[in-house]
Amino acid sequence: MRYYNIPIFIPHEGCPHDCSFCNQRKITGVTTTVKPHQVHSMIEKHLSFLPDCKRHIEVAFFGGSFTGLPLKKQENFYRVAGEFRGEIDGIRLSTRPDYINAEVLSLAKAWGVTTIELGAQSAFDRVLVQNLRGHTFQDTKEAAALIQDYGIGLGLQMMTGLPGSNREWDIKTAELLAELKPDCVRVYPTLVLNGTAMEQQYRAGEYSPQTLEEAVETAKRVLTVFRNREIPVIRLGLHAGEELREEGNIVAGPFHPAFGELVENRIWRDRIEEEIKKTISFPKEISIQVPFGEVSKAVGQKRCNLTYFQEKYGVSVKIESR
Ligand code: SF4
Q1: 17 CB less than 6 Å from ligand 1?
Q2: Strand order in 90-95's β-sheet?
Q3: What pLDDT, on the 0 to 100 scale, is given for residue 287?
Q4: Cα-Cα-Cα-Cα dihedral of 78, 80, 85, 88, to 10°?
């Protein structure tokens, strides 16, 4: 079974906030309002590109705070997605924790919404306030419970390296989010985007984003928290769309087009390092067997893990598939 999302970006609509890190127009690359009739042709176009295999397709309303739209407008979008019943398997959307209530959930349930993703970002109110989120962690907990009461899948999104946070708090956030038993999680290291309040803080020297190395290390530990609880992490790092990567859009921060891959590499590096350390005297060569499909992760991007072991321990590591 292959899983596909048909992303429909609704930039900033339904959201009167201006979170310190957010420039939705930059993230989504869309600056104009999306109308329901446009959504119809977007879905149609996407469907025509998808391979004809065993597949699970969801229409995903991302980019703004969907449930902050007037109910009528939400329904109009649902109706368009509903026209593809039989071809798509569900609808998912992203929103803010404080925009969840019985009314929006009844509507979502009636139109077959399968998953709602909440931008939780941090479990620490001090961090939420500092980043102008306008909601508390209590709002996240209540919204998560209500979504689950309605039998709708729960997704949670968190950020690492936010102003006011630190690695310990990011890991704690992951632990507290895991307690809410989400069906999936997305983890985003904070980037300083052009035109945001964060950019001003950064330029004033009031905020230093994580280095790529720090972000990888933190994300590794956050990922481990969720994996230990068997909670799927479906995204690590912002999607590197063309618009996001346009010159000047990312002012600073640990951006890498394959951030998730770097984190997986690091997990393997740690595992192999443990094996090497167990040996009494470092051998010149060591062979490590890893599951089929994990070889490239264990080798690392541009063979970075192999270089690391060679330089640090003088050990030549050979990775073989099990
Ligand atoms: S709530 Fe979401 S869309 Fe609104 S400003 Fe914050 S991050 Fe951007």
Answers
A1: yes
A2: 2-9, 55-62, 90-95, 113-121, 153-160, 184-189, 233-236
A3: 92
A4: -80
Between the alpha carbon of residue 24 and those of residues 32, 34, 233, 243, 273, the distances in Å are: 11, 13, 22, 11, 40
Kindly state the DSSP code that residue 279 receives in the 8-state scheme: S
Ligand 1: distance of its center to the CA of 10 in Å? Answer: 11
Total residues belonging to the chain? 322
CATH of domain 2-257: 3.20.20.70
Please tell me the distance from the alpha carbon of residue 90 to that of residue 121, in angstroms, as a whole number.
25
Assess whether the C-beta atom of 96 lies below 6 angstroms from ligand 1.
yes
Which of 12, 19, 188 is the pocket-test mutation for ligand 1 (most atoms within 8 Å of CB)? 19
Report CA-CA distances (Å) from 104 to 91, 143, 152, 194. Answer: 14, 11, 12, 33
Token pair for 199: 């950019």
Question: What is the pTM assigned to this prediction?
Answer: 0.92
Residue 64: closest CA among 73, 53, 54: 73
Pairing state of beta strands 316-321 and 233-236? unpaired
Closest ligand 1 atom to 133 CA: 6
Residue with CA at minimum distance from ligand 1 atom 5: 18
| Phi-psi domain of 93 (left: phi exceeds 0; alpha: psi -120 through 50; beta: other) | beta
User: With a 6 A CB cut-off, is 15 part of the ligand 1 pocket?
Assistant: yes
How confident is the model over 121-143, as pLDDT tens digits?
A: 999 999 999 999 999 999 999 99
Domain ranges of the chain: 2-257, 277-321
Q: Is the CB of 119 under 6 A from ligand 1?
A: yes
